[in-house]
Amino acid sequence: MASNTANERVALIASHLQKVGPSLADKVCIVTGAGSEYGIGRATVYALARRTPKVIYATDLTLDGLQELATDIEQKHPGVKCIARAVDAASTQGVTGIIDEAMKDYGRLDVFFANAGIASGTFLQGEDEESFMRMMRVNALSAFLACKHAGEAMKVTGKGGKDKSGGSIICTASVAGLRSGAGSPEYSASKAAVINLCQTSSFQYAGTDVRVNAILPGLIETGMTKSTFDYARQKGSAHKIGQLNPTRRYGVALEIAAVVSFLASEEASYVNGQAIAVDGGLSASLPVVPGRFH
């Protein structure tokens, strides 16, 4: 696929996703890792807002850029409250604090997108105990805390107009959590843990209508990958990015956000305990020579 054709396709998809209508009326949502300008978390705040929930808590480790995001959301989507908060998503105090605030002010919690995460480009011998545990803390512990505490809050009824238990927890994993080839050993291990946490947690909440799913992005242009994309563009090889998947292009954050917002809504009421790859088909095949075994 030629580069300009791929870019036109991305623009068309983005335009289509902007038209998604409301399906989160009266819901209370929390998003972690929303600070990056090019990130999946920020794109998801916009995608959720188009479904008109009551409130979205947009959080990250610091407030950098979050207040501007909240203001923009409220201007573009009147009736949707967006609240910026600094939250350590890998801290019990941080996670319970933002959940308690939502419960105190709105009486309910319906959606928790555990998206906060970090990545590395190291090889096995370049990693150590400290780097491994930091990766597990930020990526896997944050997902564990979301599953544990958000799920309990989602079971609470009788407040905020919520008359039955239920909610949706979505955690950002990665195709790197499935097998080798998409990330460093420590990063891949942390994302494998996220996948398993979502699967096991879904059964912990059996019968409560609290759903837990993992989203597995493939090669997406985000704040974490932007340097790679910028380097490729400088070299004139940007058209080669993503050519190993059958869609023959990379993805954009809005495409991940669209799936997250679907999982957040009642439209996905029977989707539970799943690891959903959004990777252009990359994880669908064993390695093959391009052009062979169509």
TrEMBL record:
Protein name, UniProt field: NAD(P)-binding protein
Coiled-coil residue spans: none
A Pfam entry, by short name: adh_short_C2
InterPro entries: NAD(P)-bd_dom_sf, SDR_fam
Keywords: Oxidoreductase
SUPFAM superfamilies with a match to the protein in the record: NAD(P)-binding Rossmann-fold domains (SSF51735)
Organism from which the protein derives: Syncephalastrum racemosum
Gene3D superfamilies in the record: NAD(P)-binding Rossmann-like Domain
Family: Belongs to the short-chain dehydrogenases/reductases (SDR) family.
The organism's place on the tree of life at top rank: Eukaryota
GO terms for MF: oxidoreductase activity
